[in-house]
Design a protein that fits this description.
Layout (H helix, E strand, L loop, with lengths): L3 E4 L2 E4 L7 E2 L1 H9 L12 H5 L6 H10 L2 H6 L1 H14 L5 H22 L7 H5 L2 H20 L4 H15 L11 H6 L3 H9 L1 H19 L9 H8 L3 H29 L5 H6 L4 H5 L5 H17 L4 H4 L3 E2 L42 E2 L1 H12 L6 H19 L1 H7 L5 E2 L22 E2 H15 L7 H21 L7 H17 L1 H7 L2 H22 L3 H13 L1 H15 L6 H10 L1 H20 L7 H9 L21 H4 L1 H18 L8 H6 L5
Helix pairs in contact: 3-6, 5-6, 6-9, 8-9, 8-11, 9-12, 11-12, 11-14, 12-14, 12-17, 14-17, 14-19, 17-20, 17-33, 19-22, 20-23, 22-23, 22-24, 23-26, 24-26, 24-27, 24-28, 26-27, 26-29, 27-31, 28-29
Length: about 700
């Protein structure tokens, strides 16, 4: 008997002795694509259609092949198909529901694809008809809500979320997607929360649910009242918020693990000597496919949760035990999708310890630690535009955290100490830090370490000015909290001071090149004012009196940099150029630093001359400093502990619009035919009762 082959909706015998035969479902699609009502000749047409396995490729291809005019001719049949799909969602037989969901996906994508051309028809009218749109969309949303909240099949829930993601992302700019008005009116917010609060549902669908929520929150967020924003901002259910945090932690920690594996791969074997020599240039490329794009949607979800919901701040510090402290599950450790912005959820519950891979020497971890590690990876390479945006979003999230009173309370809590192994960029002039030597410290130390690391490693021609400004602002906000609450943090402040002075040195060395693109005086002023903060209020938050002495020692030791900065800003502030005003602000801000240098330098020189010492040791300089504080006069500077609070709408709207656009495109691309495959679903529903 000749073997039967199947291709593109056609059935043909391998002997090719006869014309190819079409699948029955394809023949039925062809009937829909005529101007006649397909149910005229066959009253059971729609009933039979949803028993047939959907041929997504053929249906979408057929829609794509038509021009706008041809599509308008069969509008009534398209409307009819859409309405019967919605009716089928209420059927008892799951196969009908599955087929209806997949047909809806194909219809929405196919019709919208035509809308991109110059035909100019309205997508809602084309799909459902203006006269029936409100009722049909209400029924659709209610059916999806019921399926998501029901006790039934997890596969059906997965398809519902896929359909919703398909519906949300059909346009690159989701705010131009008029279908979403119906998703706003007929909210599925509670269904999403239910998924996140249930361990079983969260395990299967948490990733998709969180991505969907992040996108819905960004629909016309600056133009109208978005109910998803309002509702997310008032969620206070602990199980739901923790569930959301666990999904985010899972996605970020899986990324961190994959990055670490890649890094170790490149540091062994043939490439190890080469990567050490050139600063491990391969790291950025090694996981381009799984890095920024994989987690941008999850990062956006984390941002929205932190920014909108004060209660979510507590989730950041929720501790999770390390892997070794719990029984290892017999099922394999799940992985998040490796395709760009994957929307396939992890395959086991995120509350499982195995899903939060921690370093072997860390007893506990939490979402904030996972996020800080993630940030330390993506912020290494900002030359790539996607990573630059991801790094920026990380810093915006940290800005929101640094402004929050409760977040600061646990960041600075001496009873909450963690060992956080941040990723450090390989650099020729420094050795790789041994992870085991890291002490357990309050979490704010890891945040400061991350800021110092960024400052030290990004002084380059393509200077990321915006990220530097955000970095310095985060440090300033943390210092404001420490000053206000008199928190004496045991931190290696010298590393921060050294990094800041080197940054000033870099700005001066590259003045001509940088001034073409950036107002470097804004950044210089912020750095100088950080030193002013330490000088004016350091005695209230530095850990010991000797720390304050060391501050003066660093300023005196590096006085040449401050002298050079003063000369530069004085030169520009006395000219009538565009930089006169910003440069003069830096001139005024340097008053106390210059007073310290001018006061102590002669005394140090005198001490050296009297004692016949050519070069003083640090201890000798500190002795001179301590004995001459009483004759030092400093000016009181106002507003050092004040800052402008973060505002998304006024300053970041363009950034988020572009970010959400990028996420929408990637989510849509990832909802490919393979993710909507029916094989598993048909196995699950192999019998119809």
């Amino acid at each position: 008997m000749a073997q039967t082959e199947k291709k593109g909706g056609l059935l043909r015998k391998s002997s090719a002795s006869k014309k190819p035969l079409k699948e029955k479902v394809v023949l039925m699609y062809d009937e829909i694509f005529t101007t006649e009502d397909p149910s005229k000749c066959n009253p059971r047409f729609w009933e039979e259609l949803f028993l047939m396995k959907v041929n997504l490729e053929y249906l979408e291809g057929k829609l794509e092949a038509l021009d706008g005019e041809e599509l308008m001719k069969i509008k009534d049949n398209i409307n009819c198909l859409f309405q019967h799909c919605i009716q089928a969602l209420g059927e008892e037989h799951p196969i009908r529901v599955v087929n209806a969901l997949q047909t809806l996906c194909a219809l929405i994508r196919g019709v919208h694809q035509k809308n991109k051309s110059s035909s100019g028809f309205d997508i809602i009218n084309m799909l459902v008809g203006f006269d029936k749109a409100e009722l049909c969309m209400k029924n659709l949303m209610e059916s999806l809500d019921s399926l998501l909240c029901a006790e039934g099949s997890e596969s059906l829930k997965s398809l519902c979320l896929k359909l919703l993601l398909c519906l949300v992302t059909v346009t690159d700019n989701i705010s131009q997607n008029t279908i979403l008005e119906y998703v706003m009116i007929n909210s599925i917010f509670e269904a999403i929360l239910q998924i996140l609060s249930s361990p079983l549902s969260r395990r299967e669908h948490g990733y998709d649910a969180v991505v969907l929520l992040a996108l819905l929150v960004n629909y016309r967020k600056y133009e109208s009242v978005n109910p998803y924003i309002v509702k997310l901002s008032i969620v206070d259910d602990e199980a739901t918020l923790n569930g959301m945090g666990l999904v985010i932690a899972q996605a970020l920690s899986e990324y961190n693990r994959q990055y670490k594996d890649k890094e170790e791969e490149h540091q062994t074997g043939f490439f190890s000597a080469l990567t050490n020599m050139v600063g491990s240039m391969f790291i950025a490329d090694a996981d381009e496919k799984i890095s920024v794009q994989t987690n941008e949607a999850i990062l956006l979800a984390l941002y929205e949760a932190v920014h909108l919901n004060r209660n979510f701040i507590t989730v950041l510090a929720q501790s999770h035990p390390e892997m070794g402290l719990m029984t290892t599950p017999t099922s394999p450790i799940p992985t998040t999708p490796v395709t760009p912005l994957g929307t396939t959820p992890p395959s086991s519950d995120v509350i499982s310890s195995a899903e939060l891979p921690l370093d072997a020497d860390v007893q506990t971890s939490n979402l904030l630690i996972t996020f800080l590690k993630y940030s330390s990876i993506v912020m290494q390479d900002t030359k790539d535009e996607h990573r630059l945006h991801s790094g920026k979003l990380c810093l915006i999230i940290l800005t929101c955290i640094a402004e929050d009173q409760y977040a600061n309370a646990f960041l600075h809590d001496d009873n909450m100490n963690f060992r956080v192994n941040l990723h450090r960029m390989p650099m020729r002039h420094r050795k790789k830090a041994a992870d085991k030597n890291l002490p357990c410290r309050p979490l704010v130390c890891a945040v400061l370490d991350l800021m110092v690391e960024f400052i030290v490693t990004h002084m380059m021609k393509e200077f990321p000015m915006d990220l530097y400004v955000r970095c310095i602002q985060i440090v300033h906000k943390l210092l404001c909290y420490q000053k206000k609450c008199r928190v004496r943090l045991h931190y290696t402040w010298r590393e921060l001071w050294s990094a800041l002075i080197n940054l000033l040195k870099f700005l001066m060395s590259n003045e001509t090149v940088l001034l073409v693109k950036h107002n470097i005086f804004t950044l210089a002023l912020m750095v100088v004012n950080l030193f002013n903060m330490f000088i004016t209020y350091g005695d209230t938050f530095l850990p010991t009196p000797s720390s304050y002495d060391e501050l003066y020692y660093e300023i005196i030791r590096m006085h040449q940099n401050f002298d050079n900065l003063y000369s530069m800003v004085l030169r520009l502030s006395t000219n009538a150029g565009q930089w006169k005003e910003p440069a003069s602000k830096v001139t005024h801000a340097l008053v106390n630093i210059r007073a310290i240098i001018n006061h102590f330098n002669p005394k140090i020189e005198s001490y050296a001359a009297v004692n016949h010492i050519s070069q003083l040791s640090e201890d000798q300089v500190l002795e001179v400093v301590r004995s001459n504080y009483d004759t030092l006069t400093l000016k009181l500077q106002d507003g050092l502990d004040q800052y402008e609070r973060y505002s998304e709408q006024h300053k970041e709207a363009a950034f988020f619009k572009e970010l959400v656009r990028s996420i929408s495109i990637n989510v849509r691309k990832n909802l490919a035919f393979n993710t909507l495959s029916q094989e598993l679903l048909l196995k699950e529903f192999s019998t119809i009762s």
